[in-house]
Structures are given as C-alpha cells and as structure tokens.
Amino acid sequence: MRTGLIALTLAAALPSLAAAQQAAPSGPPAKAPPKTVGEVVVTGAGSAPVQSGLDRRSYDVSKDLQAQSGAIADALRNVPSVEVDVQGNVSLRGDGNVTILIDGKPSSLFQGDNKAQALQSLPADSIERVEVITNPSAEFRADGSAGIINLISKKAKGAGRTGSVRTLVGADGRYSASANLGYNSNRLTMTGEVSARADAQKMRTLDLRSQTGAGGDVETIDQTLIGHVFANSASTRGSLDYDLTPKTRIGVEAHGNYTSFRPDNHLHIVADDPALGLADTFDRATFVHQKRAAAEVSANLRRQFAGDGVLTASLSYEGINDSRVRDGETFDQSPPAPAAFDQQRIDNDLSTVQLKADYVQPLPGMAKLKLGLDVEHNDNTYRNRGFAGPAPGALSPDAALTNLFLFERTVSAAYATYERPIGELTVLAGLRVEDVRQTLNQVTLGQRTENDYLRAYPSLHLGWKLSDDQQLTAGYSHRVQRPEPGDFNSFRFMLDPLNYRAGNPHLKPQQTQSFEVGYEYRQTPTVLLATAYYRENRDGVTDVLRDLGGGVLLSERTNAAQSRSAGLELVANGKLTPTLSYSLSTNAAWTELDSLGPSFAPTRSLVSLSGRGGLTWQATPDDLFQVNAFLNGKRLTPQGYADPAFGIDFGYRRKLTDQVFLVATFQDIAGTFHLNQVNDTPLLKERSKINFDTHQLRIGFTWSFGGGRPRDPGFEFQAPAPTT
After folding, report:
1. pLDDT averaged over the chain?
2. How many domains is the chain partitioned into structurally?
3. 3-state SS of 309-374?
4. Burial class (CB in 10 A: 0-12, 13-18, 19+), 30
C-alpha cells in the first residue's frame, strides 16, 4: 500500500506539471535561466580537470595515462577522496560503503563480491570523468552511506564520425584492446564501443593467528597462501539518441559484459596447541572458475516544455548470470589422513527492472523545483550445490555445502528538491522518501522472512558566493547502507576447513548522518578546495568472528558497528609552469569505532593521513611524462586495523602522428603496494599480509580519427538538452 501511494502521488504530479507547461503560450522558447551555483560551476574549457556543484565534484580522468592503460580501479586511485586497496576494494574518505553508478544508474556489476572484481577487470579507457558525491542531495538514491562514485562514459564528440582504437600489452600474458565509434549530426547521436582485456596476478598471503579457547588454552595457526588469478573480460556498449522535434529526444542504450575469473589458491596450514600437545598440519588447494555474463538495455525520453520545464524518463532491464565452480582438495600431513575432496557449484541469477522519471521546473527568481519517481525491483536466486568425497571422480552430494536462497527487493522512492538563490546565498533543500519491501527465502533451512521499512531522508546544501573566484559551501544528508543480498543468507558457507561465513536475515540498513563545510577558490588554471566533514554511523553491518571450537572460526554478519569520523580534505590543481601541471589532495581523518562487546576489541580511535599527488610534464610537443603517487591511510576494522599502503605509478605518452600515440605505464614502481591487516581482541590475535604483483609494465598504441568541435561535457549525469 505504501509503495502504491508513493508511485501514484509522483505519477500524478509529473504529468500535471507537464500539462501546465504544454498549456503555456506558444512562441519561441524562453531562454534557459542562468545556472545557479547549485547546478554547475564550470571554470575554463570543457577539459577542466575539476568541476564542482553544491552536491558533487567531477574529475577528468581522460588525461590520466593509468586510466588509458589500466582498469577502472587504476583510474580511481588518482581521484581525490577515493581509496582503492590492492584487492580492488573502494572507499570514500576511508569508508567502504560506497555506491557506484554508471552514467547515473546503478549496476549489479558493482554489488557484493563482484564490485572489486569488476573494478579490476573492466577497462578504464571508456570512462571520461568521475563524479565524487560525498554528501548527495535527495535527488540521489539513499544507498551508500559514504557517498556515490558516478562513472561518466565517453560520448561521441565533434561533428560527423569520430572514433579510436587502443591496444596494450604487458607481462605474463596481459593485454587489452578496445575500439569505439561515434557519429553526431543535428538530430542523431550514436556511440558504440567494444573492448577485451586479459589480466593475471600472483598473490602471496602470510597469516599468523593465535586463539584463546574456552578453557584458556592458546592455539596458534600459521597459514601461507600462494595464489594465481586469471581474469578475461569482454564488453560492448552502444547508444542512440534522436531528436524527434527540437524539444523531444528519444534514445536507447545497451551494455554487455562477459568475465571469466579464475583464482587458483594453495594454502599450507600449521595448527598447534601446546597445552594439549596437539598439532595439525595440512594443505588446502582451491581452483575456481567463475563466469559472469551481464546485459542491460534501456529506453529513455526527454521532453522540454514551453515554460522550460524538462521531463526525463527511462525504463531499463538488467540481467546477470554468475556461475562458479570451486574445487577443493585437502591433504592432511600430521596426523596423516586420507585426502578429502569437495566441490561447490554456485549459480547466481540476478535481474533488475528500474523505472525512473524526473521533472525539472524553473521558477521565478531563478529558483528551480525537481520532482522524481524511482522504482527498482531486484529478483535474485542464489543456488549453491556442494559435493564431497575421497577422490575427484567419487564425489557425492554434501548437504553441509548445499543451499538455495531466494531474495527479492523493491525500492519505491519519491523525491523533491527546491533550489533558490537569495542574494549571494544559494539554498538547495530536498526530501526523499523510500519504501523498501524485501522477501528472504532460505529454502534449504525453511526460513522465510519479510524485512520491510519506510523511511524519509532529508538533505540541505548551501552555497555562499564570496567573489567571482571564491565561494563557501555547506551540506547535510541522511544516508543508508543497505546490506547486500548475500548478507541475509543465514546458511553457513565453507571457505576452508577452518573458516565459515554466514549472513543474517534480520539485518537492517546502516544509518548515517553526514555534515560538510567547504571552501573553493578558482583562478584559472588554479583550483583550491578545502572540505571539513563529520559523519556518524549507527547499526553498521559488520563481520563478527565466533570461535566454533577446534580452531574453526565463523564470520557472521550483524548490525553491531557504531562509528564516528571527522576530517579535513584539501585538493589543489594547477600549473607550476606552462608545461608542468600538478594535482594534489590530502585527507587528515579521525575515526572512532565502538566496541562490539567484552570479548572484542575495546572502543578505539585513530588519526590517519591519506592522499595522492601527480605531476604531468609536456616535455616537448610530442612527449608527455606523468608520475602519480598515493597513500592509503591506516584504517580501523571491527576487530583491528589495516596498515597504510603506498604506491608510485609512472606513465609516458609519445605522439607519433596527429592521430597515433604510444603509451607506456609502469605501475607500483617501488613494489610497495601491499595489504597488511591486524585483528586484536582478548580472544583472537591475528596478523596477515597480502602481496600482489602490482609491479607491472604496459605498452600500447592509440589511433584516433574524425574530429570537429567537441562538446563541453559539463556534468553529464543527465542527458544533454535537445537541439533548439
């Protein structure tokens, strides 16, 4: 009933406003009102590295050589506010609860366990800009308590036909290739792209664990993991927009992606309990072959009315099939025992249907009203079939490894924002209401749960123009972090004989209150940004380790985390000389995590420093050099912390002709990019170190053709206005 009321209210409101505009007197269209500070502040040409608005910042990554040769994760490492660890996990200002959008729309590719894999396997050369939205307005979905990263795809620019072809090779069989073609005329815009990428990585993990049992005896477990990861992906994308009339545009868009992901791991474990005189030594090998096929198709409409009101609507469908076969082999050395074999066949089918409509109406006094309706339905099936036996050819079904979990979620949302300049002050106020209906069916365990809620999420953003070069901003938003579907699955999933994972069907979303105050200075080519922020999280979803005895640990999801963070972020872009440009950013942050209970770590806090910097030198008209360095700061975890991580990347581009370029990049030159984690509680002491071979050299060529006057990209979250 609540879902229907929200949908009917907005569905009725949008056509009524549209009809009012149609009834306006005919004649030449009125000029669009000047953009206020809340819409877009753009300085310089369309290729300006930093653009900003009241509720977002946009960074140009098309000039980043790492983005031209690497995956999306490589490009994000050089974006202010963003951190990417060695496994591809993304965070904003140290918080990993991030929503990732593509051209303003959510994608199942960036949900759950797939998020890091997708960021490390999808090529970055299809991305032109990255919008970082740390304090979103009510226009955006409430998901992602840390904020939103919106990846803006490259669009066809210039009159007539344009395109490019890229090829790149690296060591150990790494390669990537892509081609795109675009066409622009007065009424028609078409863009098409295909790409393929192969990557391989080696991993070495050292883990030392000390556990205190119920009787006070201490057991030590020493684990060494050697892994190889092979990833191959192919992607295609196409879009077509056509202006039926000067004020009506229709369009279709389609995406497709196929990824083959093959991690092979060999684990050596030595467990020792001196008090009991027991020791256990065994080897564990796992071989995984994951195949993920994703496709999305959408249709959109944009209609401009006589009074400058604009209605945009889209309907999209996305389907993903994610299948995995994981073979495991366990060999006991001490005490000796027969080898054991297991296999898990995982089939995940995900489908998403989304209907979205937005209406923007300019009002007297340079004010602007936005109304929106957004309904999304997710239907997910997670099927895990397990087998075990004494030999690979003698496996039989194992009930302990088999389960079926069905998940459905419908999010129906309505929002309104009102923006108005009052002298030098611009106010952007908004309210978003979301009705969430979730059905959880753990078929194997016979558990069926309804998990519904209706909540409102307000936002407020202010901008104060101090001068033509300076402004102050302030913002507030209420956000949530919804658990992933797998977080609700209560079935115990075996990772290896000593580690299990389980979800919780009663999870609620994390609630976040976020506040920001900012200062901005622009004097071409210099851009200086300073932001002070405070964020408070409650009911955070986290993993809690439980000792099941015998050295076996269960990692279980629960609403137990409470935290606070505050910090100061500084960003600077500009030129030192006409041929030497720089980009710098740093974030000094304070974080406090509350204790999860007497058997866990006490309430802790720390101050950490993170940042990134880059220099681009146009040594000659044909030679460009680029160096980037990044530091991921120390980060608290629910039961410990992760140490800082540091890396340096180098790039070189040579212009061979006006259309052909040579690009060479060297990632992690010093070989310092690692992941070190510590768990420190009264019952568990653990230290692990993960090393990947991120020390990589890539060489490639780019050929571009076509031309013409490029469009100013501005903020491309919304489609460009129809030709008038």
Report:
1. 85
2. 1
3. CEEEEEEEEEEEEEEEEEEEEEEEEECCCCCEEEEEEEEEEEEEEEEEEEEEEEEHHHEEEEEEEE
4. exposed
pLDDT value at residue 723: 31
Give whole-number Cα distances, 700 to 120, 232, 236, in Å: 18, 18, 20
DSSP designation for 304: E
Binned at pLDDT 50, 70 and 90, residue 622 comes out as very high
Distance CA 99, CA 102 (A): 10
Dmax of the chain from CA atoms? 93
Q: What is the DSSP letter of 123?
A: B
CA angle in degrees (0–180, nearest 5) for 409-414-420: 145
Q: What is the pLDDT of residues 145-162, one digit of tens each?
A: 899 999 998 776 666 888
412-450 pLDDT, tens digit each: 999 999 999 999 999 999 999 999 999 999 999 999 999
> CB of 496 within 8 A of CB of 453?
no
Q: Is residue 448 part of a domain?
A: yes
Q: pLDDT-derived band of residue 215, with 50, 70 and 90 as boundaries?
A: low
Domain enclosing residue 543, as ranges: 2-706
Instruction: Give the span between the Cα atoms of 608 and 565, in whole angstroms.
Output: 11
Residue whose tokens read 């995995």: 324
**The CATH number of the domain where 482 resides is what?**
2.40.170.20
* Structural domain contains residue 722: no
| pLDDT tens digits, one per residue of 525-579 | 899 999 999 999 998 888 877 777 777 888 888 887 889 999 999 999 999 999 9
434 assigned to some structural domain? yes
Tell whether 724 is covered by a domain.
Answer: no
Neighbours of 397 (CB within 10 A): 11
Cβ(582)–Cβ(614) under 8 Å? yes
Q: What is the mean pLDDT of residues 509-517?
A: 94
